[in-house]
Amino acid sequence: MTPTRTGPADSLTDVSGVLVGHHHRLDENATLGSGSATGCTVVLVPGGATAGVDVRGGGPGTRETDLLDPSHSVQQVNAVLLTGGSAYGLAAADGVMRWLEEHGHGIAMGAPGQVVPIVPGAVIFDLPVGDWTVRPTGDFGFLAAEDAARDFATGTVGAGVGARAGAIKGGVGTAGVVIADGPAEGVTVSALMVANPVGSVFDPRTGLPWGVGSDGAESFGLRRPDTAELAAANVVAAKGTVLNTTIGVVATDAVLTKASCRRVAVAGHDGLARAIRPAHSPLDGDTIFALATGTHAQATTIEVPAAFPADLPVLDAVCAAAARVVERAIVTAILEATSVAGIPSYRELFPSAFL
Predict the structure, then answer these.
(1) Phi, psi of 266 (to 5 degrees)
(2) Which is more confident, 212 or 3?
């Protein structure tokens, strides 16, 4: 297992050059069918980042994912949109593009100011939470980009406002590590996830989130909850859900190619499958983007046979870390979410689980 240590802020923005912003509308009295409860989250890389994507769910809603094919011409993106609103929510990407254009970020195509920003995106299905007709627009995307910073909120914010994870409240979570040894020593790998899966996020036998397995429950400040709380939570879980899809971004400061970014996105799904059961269902649109800013000039003394990519030793370590940070980010999303529209949070169901 690749040795790592927790990043400075345990956050996606531990990777230099990456910013995160949210915008949402949330009414205190929102219900399943009325009021406002939706939003979007923008991962901003104004300086550009090499990118890849892996779509595993059977019901995805995405934008510009074909462009990320390693064989295609455009090499970098300027932002990634994660949004509620199902396919309607993709309109928020227009506002992100508008913000980037106004600030001169994008592919330079001619005279000064003539740029084409590249903004891939993915959606979650949260329309039944709140009024079906209230969903992110271009203005949401613009305001989320305007809000982008290194410090950002998690839980019931942005694209996670209307999220539901199985029977309980979902949300936005983040995690970050620094690789502590080997050819990728000093490289940062981090993730931001929006948890809204069909599958369950906690073990019905113990009440603990599935994703605590790699690091242990104590590292999240958790212990096994009381049996009475577990029994009540399993009754709630049996009622099921109509919401679906977990989406997110893995970022690293390593120097990687587009093809290698795709492998990082693939590895991120391993972490998703550890934290959600079942994962990648026909109803989910599970999608993970990977970004490499290249701001860490890693050095490796390992010789790589000519038949393999030159960045293989670093890539191997980054992929292992990617799975871990995705898993931890999903747990964080669940633990920090608060109730909306009567959807109970993990903390409400399992108060005794917190140390």
Answers:
(1) -60, -45
(2) 212
% of the chain surpassing 70 pLDDT: 95
Per-residue pLDDT of 64-117, as tens digits, reads 999 999 999 999 999 999 999 999 999 999 999 999 999 999 999 988 889 999
Q: Which residue(s) pair with 54 in the sheet?
A: 288
Three-state secondary structure call for residue 95? helix
Axis-axis angle for helices 312-336, 258-275 (nearest 10): 40
Instruction: Give which of 71, 159, 85 is closest to 125, Cα–Cα.
Output: 85
For 312, the token pair is 């293989």
Please count the CA atoms within 13 angstroms of the CA of 147 that sit on its side-chain side: 21
How many whole angstroms from its chain centre is CA 314? 22
**Distance (Å, rounded) from C-alpha 121 to C-alpha 263?**
18
Report how far residue 196's alpha carbon sits from residue 181's, in angstroms, rounded to the nearest whole number: 34
Q: Which two tokens stand for residue 249?
A: 């971004």
Rounded Cα gap, residues 196 and 330, in angstroms: 10
Q: How many Cβ atoms from other residues are within 10 Å of residue 153's Cβ?
A: 16
Mean pLDDT of the chain: 93
